[in-house]
Specification:
Strand order of the largest sheet: 1-2-6-5-4-3
Oligomer: single chain
CATH architecture of the largest domain: 2-Layer Sandwich
CATH superfamily of the largest domain: CorA soluble domain-like
Low-confidence stretches: none
Helix content: 55-70%
Mean pLDDT: 82
Strand content: 5-15%
Number of domains: 2
Number of helices: 8
Length: about 300
């Protein structure tokens, strides 16, 4: 069954692990939520939001989640209803963090007494704190990966694989920024929302989450600047390498021009060409020009012109 509940004192926490007909029927039967909220639950929302009603509030919160198969940071949505004596969390897809948090609350009496014995607003704070704290682990791991790529760029010559890695990390950092930025404003709005189950005493707790998200935002923004700098560096190194190759090819082409000219002249069937009947001299002329070209290249190499 996708619906699980924890009952403690005057508070019931209902966790719905997947959105299906069973869970939708359960919500319609046991709660009087607005039809628009039910519609929002059925289809994942692209934007987080906070809707305030007379008897409850409805939140759509997005959390960054690491997708191992594709090595991507994706957005995971959790819908939350908070009322006078209940809290409902609805997952869109599997989320290990909230699952562990729920079962920890269910199986550990001390944790259950600490988190669920208080108001629904305080339980909401603990859920948001737990889920956003997991983001720091992901962000720190991403920072280590970026540092490793930076060392590879400056220790070795960058290749196509490093460029692809940089592109992946840039995409993940941009996804993190895209996910975290709206949550900062959502939590700030939550801090200023006043309900009997979400009173002024909880503002300091939600302000604490807002400050934490601001710190994460600064860290991710620093990663973005680092990746932008590394991208410019890699482009410069590759351009320098390309310029060296083009420079070498140009020198080779120009060096062969005199020999090409002579071979074109003496390749013509004209009897009156100078020394046309003296092959030794012609071959000597070709050898002298080739030797001069090699000497010129050697001098340029010595002076690091090439």
């Amino acid at each position: 069954m996708s619906v699980k509940q924890i009952k403690q004192a005057c508070l019931i926490w209902t966790n719905i692990s997947s959105v299906n007909e069973e869970s939708i029927d359960f919500l319609k039967k046991n709660f009087k939520f607005h039809q628009l909220d039910i519609e929002d639950i059925k289809s994942e929302s692209q934007n987080p939001k906070l809707d305030t009603y007379k008897d409850y509030i409805f939140l759509v919160v997005h959390f960054p989640q690491w997708k191992v198969e594709s090595k991507r940071v994706i957005s995971h949505e959790i819908d939350i209803f908070v009322g006078p004596d209940y809290l409902v969390t609805i997952q869109h897809g599997k989320n290990k963090d909230i699952k562990d948090f729920f079962y920890k609350s269910m199986n550990n009496r001390k944790t259950r007494n600490e988190w669920i014995n208080k108001s629904p607003g305080y339980l909401l704070y603990k859920i948001l704190e737990e889920l956003f704290s997991q983001c720091r682990i992901m962000i720190d791991a991403l920072g280590k990966q970026i540092s490793n790529v930076e060392n590879e760029i400056f220790d070795d010559k960058p290749d196509g694989d490093i460029i692809r890695e940089l592109a992946i990390y840039r995409r993940n950092v941009l996804n993190l920024k895209r996910i975290l930025d709206p949550q900062r404003f959502l939590v700030a709005s939550l801090s200023n929302t006043r309900k009997p189950f979400l009173d002024e005493s909880l503002s300091i707790y939600f302000d604490n989450i807002k400050d934490y998200l601001d710190k994460l935002w600064v860290i991710v923004d620093t990663y973005k600047e680092t990746l932008d700098g590394l991208h410019i560096t890699v482009e410069s190194l590759i351009n320098q390498k390309t310029n060296k190759v083009i420079n070498s090819l140009t020198i080779i082409s120009v060096s062969l021009l005199p020999l090409t000219l002579l071979s074109g002249i003496y390749g013509m069937n004209i009897e009156s060409l100078p020394f046309a009947h003296n092959p030794a001299f012609v071959w000597g002329l070709f050898g002298a020009i080739a030797g001069f070209i090699l000497l010129l290249i050697f001098v340029m190499k010595k002076r690091k012109v090439l």
